[in-house]
């Protein structure tokens, strides 16, 4: 069985079309951050982000936990209970919120058209922290968040989102990553979900703590709950994304962990990240046989690394001498 896997598309639709056209597989998996920006107009993005951050500051002073959209809705419905400037901001926030939602849904519809036209195999995907819940979009039938499916005798299960607030995304429509510590007790919905489903293939946007989740100068940011699940269980494959900077592949027992890094280009605090990375994963029975790291560049697909996963240790079987990716860094 061959899986084409990529993550963090970030509006890279032209590249997505090229990969669908230029690869052959039994299944395509995309794990989150399908969209990058909720507006096409940069000025509108800045306007929405600025107002959203102001609304978050206002809601922090409330006695109850409430998101900016719900707060703004109350202010609009009961203007006599709120200062006039707050009511004015609330009207504007709701207007921009709905525009952002409409634009994102149009983008998802375009992605669905691209998939239907060019994909030669089934496509399943997850929302990330840059997405809204895909149940509201044209991609809802492909959504793997808190869902499972079986293929070639293997059970796939997915959990999307990440435990952070992403500016510029309509927060009320985003997937909630239900994991927290309160009063000395921890709760993790993804941990409970995977414990219930016990999949062979784990598809996540936010990685498990300690597995390809390290941000430079900050440390590990992955899910403690998913890590607890993986410490007690051994799926064949765990694919993740979210942390572009911790590209790599790790083998622990029979489990292979993979983060190919971002497919779509992004600007970050670490500079411009052009991306283009995606992988081809070969499975034989219920074990990963090989992983090929590719990069889409100048509308052409280049093989960077090929990793043999059949032994106790990972081994490099082929490398592109012009690759910017270090085999030693990619294989942990």
UniProtKB/TrEMBL annotation:
<dbReference type="InterPro" id="IPR029052">
    <property type="entry name" value="Metallo-depent_PP-like"/>
</dbReference>
<dbReference type="InterPro" id="IPR051693">
    <property type="entry name" value="UPF0046_metallophosphoest"/>
</dbReference>
<dbReference type="Pfam" id="PF14582">
    <property type="entry name" value="Metallophos_3"/>
</dbReference>
<feature type="domain" description="Metallophosphoesterase TT1561-like">
    <location>
        <begin position="67"/>
        <end position="263"/>
    </location>
</feature>
<dbReference type="InterPro" id="IPR029461">
    <property type="entry name" value="TT1561-like"/>
</dbReference>
<protein>
    <submittedName>
        <fullName>Phosphoesterase</fullName>
    </submittedName>
</protein>
């Amino acid at each position: 069985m061959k899986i084409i896997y990529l993550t963090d598309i970030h509006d890279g639709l032209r590249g997505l079309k090229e990969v669908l056209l230029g690869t052959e597989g039994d299944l395509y998996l995309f794990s989150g951050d399908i969209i990058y920006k909720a507006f096409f107009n940069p000025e509108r993005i800045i306007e929405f982000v600025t107002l959203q951050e102001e609304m978050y500051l206002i809601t922090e002073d409330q006695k109850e936990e409430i998101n900016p959209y719900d707060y703004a809705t109350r202010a609009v419905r009961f203007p006599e209970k709120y200062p006039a400037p707050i009511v004015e901001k609330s009207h504007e926030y709701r207007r921009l919120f709905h525009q952002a939602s409409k634009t994102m849904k149009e983008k998802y519809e375009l992605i669905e058209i691209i998939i239907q036209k060019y994909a030669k195999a089934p496509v399943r995907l997850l929302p990330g922290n840059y997405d809204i819940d895909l149940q509201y979009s044209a991609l809802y039938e492909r959504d793997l968040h808190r869902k499972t499916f079986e293929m070639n005798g293997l059970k796939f299960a997915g959990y999307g989102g990440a435990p952070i607030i992403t500016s510029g995304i309509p927060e009320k429509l985003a997937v909630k990553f239900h994991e927290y510590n309160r009063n000395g007790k921890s709760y993790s919905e993804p941990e409970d979900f995977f414990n219930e489903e016990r999949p062979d293939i784990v598809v996540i946007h936010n990685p498990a703590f300690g597995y390809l989740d390290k941000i430079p100068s900050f440390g590990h940011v992955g899910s403690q709950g998913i890590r607890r699940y993986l410490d007690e269980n051994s799926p064949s494959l765990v694919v993740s994304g979210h942390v572009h900077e911790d590209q790599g592949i790790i083998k622990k027992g029979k489990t292979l962990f993979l983060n190919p890094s971002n497919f779509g280009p992004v600007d970050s605090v670490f500079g411009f990240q052009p991306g283009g990375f995606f992988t081809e994963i070969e499975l034989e029975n219920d074990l990963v046989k090989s992983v090929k790291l590719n990069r889409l560049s100048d509308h052409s697909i280049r093989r960077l690394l090929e990793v043999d996963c059949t032994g106790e240790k990972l081994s490099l079987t082929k490398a592109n001498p012009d690759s910017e990716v270090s085999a030693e860094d990619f294989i942990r």
